[in-house]
Amino acid sequence: MQGLRIAAVRPRPLAPLCNISSRLLVCPRLVPTSSPQQRKRPAVRFSVRSEKRDGSVATEAKPLVPAGNTVLSRKHEGASTDLAVLLPRLKKLVLPYWNESEDHNSVRWKLAGVFALTLGTTGVSVLFNFLGRDFFNALSAKDAEKFSEMLVKWLAAICLGIPVFVMRDYYQSKLALEWREWMTRRLTAEYFYDRTFYQVQAGALVDNPDQRIAVDVRNFTDTALTFSVVILNACVDLISFSGILYSIYPPLFGALAVYAVGGTALSVYIGRPLVGLNFQQEAQEANFRYGLVRVRENAESIAFYGGEDNEQRLLNNRLKSAVDNFLVLLKASRNLSFFTSFYRFLIQVLPAAVVAPLFFRGEIEFGVINQSSSAFNHILTDVSLVVYQFETIAGFSAVVDRLGEFQEVLEGSRTGGTGTVDPSKASVSDEEEEAGTKQQQQQQQQEAQQQPAQGALGAMMQGGITLTDLPGTSGRSLLDIQHLTLQVPSSGATLVSDLTLSITPGHSVLIMGPSGAGKTSLLRTVAGLWTSGSGRIVRHGQPMGREEGEGDIFFVPQRPYVVLGTLRDQMLYPTWAKFDDRAADAAAAAASGTFGATTASSSNAGSGGAANGRSGNGAASSSSDSFGKGGSSSSSSSGGGGGDGSKRQARRLPGDAELEAALRAVQLGPLLDRIGGDLDAVADWASMLSLGEQQRLAFGRVLLAKPRLVLMDESTSALDTRNERLLYEALRAAGITFVSVGHRPTLCRYHDSVLLLHGVAGAGGYENGSGGSLQGGGWEVRPASEMSVETAMDFMG
Ligand SMILES: Nc1ncnc2c1ncn2[C@@H]1O[C@H](COP(=O)(O)OP(=O)(O)OP(=O)(O)O)[C@@H](O)[C@H]1O
Prior knowledge:
One of its GO terms (cellular component) is membrane. Residues 479-784 form the ABC transporter domain. Belongs to the ABC transporter superfamily. ABCD family. Peroxisomal fatty acyl CoA transporter (TC 3.A.1.203) subfamily. Residues 412-456, 597-652 are annotated as: Disordered. One of its GO terms (molecular function) is ATP hydrolysis activity. This protein is an alpha/beta fold and 797 residues long. It has a domain at 89-412: ABC transporter transmembrane region fold (Up-down Bundle). It contains 23 helices and 17 strands. The chain has helices spanning 36-40, 83-100, 104-140, 144-192, 196-202, 209-248, 251-271, 273-297, 299-305, 308-360, 366-383, 385-388, 390-415, 435-450, 519-527, 567-572, 581-592, 656-665, 669-674, 685-688, 691-705, 721-733, 789-796, and strands spanning 46-51, 57-60, 73-74, 420-421, 458-462, 464-470, 479-487, 494-503, 509-512, 533-540, 553-556, 598-599, 681-682, 709-713, 737-741, 753-759, 778-783. Strands 4-5-6-10-7-8 form a 6-stranded mixed β-sheet, sandwiched between helices. A 6-stranded mixed β-sheet has the order 11-14-15-9-16-17, sandwiched between helices. Helix 6 (209-248) packs across helix 13. The protein is elongated and about 115 Å long. The structure holds adenosine-5'-triphosphate. Adenosine-5'-triphosphate (ATP) binds next to helix 15.
């Protein structure tokens, strides 16, 4: 039992199922649905979302559900037309670029330039207005000389004026593009910050985040800039042409005001449904596109199942939803078009009809009729923005709503229950707590503060679970789990109750238990991905992926993740994950089209490395057989604990020889030979490698990165027992401590202890080997040597 301490502790009362510090997820039992808290936040509504077989999405009116990874979604009722919701969202979306970007002064100047050019376009329009008057006066007076002169002036004005329009449009589009890039980068950063993408996906917090980032941002920046220019143009136009119109005939104003106000009111009335329909259209199109992407990603599984008919039906249903909605949208827009067309055509004659009596009485010249028509048109266009742009405004409102909602979810995740916080500062807002929850929170804070505070990398408060990272070189322990209780978010069932154990260097543990017992959930909790429950976890070290080349604790998920890129990139992920864009592009191309190993790019070929822009030459290798104990290729301490408590030095980038040795150590030598030993070969590895090869690749990454502790979830499930043995032996030889989740009794051989999880009581009603019914969330630890194949199989039922 060396290395594994088990504390016998009295079970504590279960933590209430709520995420006490999240703004988005609220405890269902403690906060009534109609509480003031909720009423204060009408914009953030959640409901259970389910997709029917026909592809349509049903939302159940269940605004509050337990915190955790439960399927949650904001209620999709279409776009909000409530200005009290839209305007604050618009403000939050617009302002950051102009106020917070690094070069906000320069972008403001660029905007000023676009506005100046817009003023220039108004000047050109006014000029044409006067030229037109004189042109038609000369024409009606049959003054050939004056007419020729006006013709020349007109042509000169065109030559000077057109460039102003063209350059305004060019700079406006360029600025919109820069804004889009900045906003996309910012949203992407927030999306990846603290693994928010996982929260969004696991909790289904918003539909189609990819569409929002890729398409909605583009529409938003384009339209926002266009609108601001249009509005400025309208204001300046209004002032300039009002003077002209007033000087011609003041009563024209009366006609214009009645016409514009009446028209605007009617167009709002007729076009109102367009806002919601545009919102739905965006979502339906995104659903259809996502369906196609899923088919591509799961092509083989679908083909094996013969599921093409089903997929086709599902896609057709999604397409039908999009087409149906678009039909309704077309009808609504047709009705609006009827009105706006009448509105547009009527004004062709209205000003002429009003000023005609003046002309007949000889009070004005013929050219003035043309001038008044032009001025009237300008002003009417200015004051009828809503009429003319209603469809665009409707689309824009939908985009503001979708992006605003997305941003709120990202902010909620950042400031909510999963963000890294200083435990000493972790506090709960009055709004989101009830007495019981608060008491528990304070208790956890105290516990967190009792932890050696100096050098703590940070702690995450996740629901009731505190996750703390400490520089992990004390040598005593790699991982401490204290009084951990895990619950299923949706049902509240207890998976693991009051688990306390420590993982010490060199002592490997196998986690076993029936399907659904909570094995993966336990690993998720250690990784900071599971939020439902209570207790504390202390990780003595830096998890992988925080900084390049660093990491003491490595997680290997159940499904190995194969990245886009070269074979080298596969091996370096995630420890040295910086990719050459060209290699990734080539990989993406390989993934979307034909595949087969190809060399990444000519710039990489023959360099013996540098697929990711860094030196990686074989000469740098310390040893081609560097996976035995003491053959470390890492400059940091590896395995076996020990250390000085200071920040670990980043690992040196492995060279070709080390990469090859790692590949051969995990029995991927034949693959390497097949592609001619080219580590920079690019292929659609996810399709090309068998699942077992992908699992071996995952072990190869671990061997290269040499973490102190690796936690693996059924990482050898696709392997034969010989390969399984070789991989575990390689890990042990490299001095890496491991915790594995697995079902196979043969795994017991490679571990020192076995943690048996009993799972949820009554869920399947299984019994242990001794025949007695077990408590929900029960667990026990046994020496692995005592676990014969029969005992293990007995236990697994
Ligand atoms: N996101 C989630 N929301 C709600 N319940 C979940 C979620 N993820 C897992 N669960 C539930 O938690 C329980 C434990 O799941 P877990 O994946 O940890 O089981 P496991 O022991 O690893 O099972 P297996 O051996 O089949 O992989 C299951 O009943 C599962 O349905």
